[in-house]
Amino acid sequence: MTSSPPVLLDVTDAVATITLNRPEAMNGLDVATKDLLLETVRRVADDPEVRCVVLTGSGRAFCVGQDLKEHLAGLTGEADVPLSDTVEKHYNPIVLALSTMPKPVVAAVNGVAAGAGASLAFAADFRILVDSAGYNTSFAGVALSCDTGSSWTLPRLVGRAKAMELLYFPRTVPAQEALELGLATQVVTQADFAGAVAELARRLADGPTVSYGSIRQAVAYSASHPLEESLAFEAEKMALTGGTEDHLAAVNAFVAKEKPVYRGR
Question: Which DSSP string do the residues of 51-112 spell out, in sequence order?
Answer without folding.
Answer: -EEEEEESTTEEE--B-HHHHHHHHTTSS---HHHHIIIIIHHHHHHHHHSSS-EEEEE-SE
